[in-house]
Design goal:
Length: 205
């Protein structure tokens, strides 16, 4: 079981590490709103990875087939959501936030990235391939092994987001002027807009 858990850690870390729209969003939110918001942004993605891992690991073919069947519309919504986030970030003006606003924003950061990550049905194909390679996700699945592996995946993903948001907050957060932060917001918004346009361009792929 320990070896399976370690495999899950590696899988979760490897899936989370490539820089994409969630990575850009995590960095921007950490710089603009602090470590807590940046980390909660990443945790939304980690839980979404865990959700897809559970679907693949428990062999829930009906759910995975439904997601894949309707992936055009799900990707469309995800692409439009990226465009919305990109525009919003581009227009964001650096400002001081009260503690109450930060508490509410942490849940907003978590939920938006969870939804954004879950709106990529192709992700489940990666997990199906991983679980199939490990002999899980079939009708004879050992559910205890699936739970151990998925737990490792979530923790591995969370470790990456903790490292990213913590590193960014420690190195840069208190050294940036409002003017620099405004430029970072604009750059982040443009990058996420590009991801959104790319997602919409390849809806049928």
């Amino acid at each position: 079981m320990l070896a399976l858990f370690i495999k899950g850690l590696i899988i979760g870390f490897a899936i989370a590490a490539p820089v994409g729209p969630i990575g850009v969003l995590c960095i921007q939110r950490t710089l603009h709103d602090g470590f807590k918001i940046g980390f909660m942004t990443g945790m939304g993605a980690a839980l979404a990875d865990g959700t897809y891992g559970l679907i693949a690991g428990f062999g829930l073919t009906a759910i995975s087939s439904l997601l894949i069947t309707h992936q055009f519309w799900i990707r469309l919504i995800g692409g439009l959501f990226l465009l919305y986030l990109g525009i919003k970030l581009f227009m964001t003006v650096p400002q001081q936030r009260s503690s109450g606003e930060a508490d509410r924003s942490s849940w907003h950061a978590f939920s938006t990235t969870y939804l954004l990550t879950i709106m990529n049905p192709a992700t489940i194909l990666s997990f199906v391939a991983v679980f199939a390679g490990l002999g899980l996700g079939t009708t004879s699945t050992d559910y205890s092994q699936a739970i151990v592996l998925v737990s490792g995946i979530i923790l591995g993903s969370a470790m990456w987001w903790l490292s990213l948001s913590g590193g960014v907050a420690f190195i840069l957060h208190h050294r940036l002027s409002p003017a620099v932060m405004r430029n970072i917001n604009r750059l982040s918004g443009m990058i996420i807009l590009i991801f959104g346009v790319y997602a919409l361009m390849f809806l049928g792929v």
